[in-house]
Amino acid sequence: MPNTEHWVLTFVCPDKPGIVHAISGAVVKAKGNITESKQFTSESNNFFMRLQIESSIARKEFEKIISSVATEYRMQWQLDVVDRPMKTLVLASKAAHCLNDMLFRQLSGQLPIEVAAVMANHSDLQELAEFYKTPFELHEVNSEKDKKEFENRITEFVEQNDIELIVLARYMQILSPEFCQKYAGRIINIHHSFLPGFKGANPYAQAHQRGVKLIGATAHFVTEDLDEGPIIEQNVDRVTHEESKQKLVRIGQDIESRTLAQAVSWFAEHRVLLDGSRTVIFS
User: What SS3 state is found at 269?
Assistant: First the structure.
């Protein structure tokens, strides 16, 4: 198909007969060819769909055709270019593993994001960011005033640079409820899956002392309810009594890194749709 663009279309709407027929007709009208299609109807009676479409018509014309169907079926929809790097801001503290993994995957073309900057409340990761030629900003957070100023700076940066995704790469500060609400569905966090059993400092030491047999990590959307946002991805590895505390940390950090990378990749590819407190993942 000459002079084509490869689009990704996602939408959610109340379930009713005729949706797939209507959207397929719109694709035909747009002179499009569907290269990938996935759909799901949830218990909340919402219909979710993700399509990849090759078409030779201009974006405005394509959007006009889709919008007529969207209005009829009360769709919340989004159209984007397949594999377009998503503009991303990363927040970090001291732990390097998740940040290093993300920046490496971005550099090697394994992760469809464009990290516009790394912002941190400690200077430990500045050299790492600079190694990957990524702008770094230090904002120490020692008080509620500092936190408010930092969040204001993040908001300013997001608006000025058209940031679409904020990733907490082991950022160890709690975001305010107002900030979480402002960017609901656009902030992804990663943490070990020892919660709520092993809270506070040194969770891996606590896990080692208790003789855990599974180590895991959870990537989820950030909400004002700490670590309870809609889950995007989870992974676990089995461990035995033979693992030292240091080995548990290494295993855990590897799981955290790849779990976060998978969640970010799915989000950037428009494969993650929200269904209340749950997610629909078109992997």
Answer: coil
Whole-angstrom Cα distance, residue 142 to residue 239? 37
**Count of other CB atoms within 10 angstroms of residue 60:** 8
Nearest to 12 by CA among 62, 63, 68, 73: 73
Q: Mark residue 228 as left, alpha or beta (left: phi above 0; alpha: psi -120 to 50; beta: remaining).
A: alpha
Counted residue by residue, the chain has a size of 283
CA 81 and chain centroid, separation: 17
Read off the tokens for 2.
Answer: 């000459």
- DSSP, collapsed to helix, strand or coil, labels residue 207 as helix
Cα separation, 258 vs 98, in Å, equals: 8
| Selection from 110, 114, 105 nearest residue 86 by Cα | 114
The residue type at 89: L
Taking only the tens place, the pLDDT of each residue in 264-283 is 999 999 999 999 999 999 99
CB 133, CB 149: distance < 8 Å: no
**DSSP at 72:** H
Q: Reduced to 3 states, what is the DSSP secondary structure of residue 230? A: coil
- What does the DSSP 8-state code read for residue 5? E
pLDDT tens sequence across 196-205: 567 666 788 8
In the block, residue with structure tokens 């219909």: 47
- Are 125 and 118 in contact by the 8 Å Cβ rule? The answer is yes
Measured between alpha carbons, how far is 263 from 283 in angstroms, rounded to an integer?
A: 10
List residues with catalytic annotation: 227
Per DSSP, the residues of 155-190 read HHHHHHTT--EEEESS--SPPPHHHHHHTTTSEEEE
Pairing, β 46-55 against β 5-14: antiparallel
By mean pLDDT, which of 28-37, 197-206, 225-234 is the weakest? 197-206
CA atoms of 144 and 146, how far apart (whole Å): 5
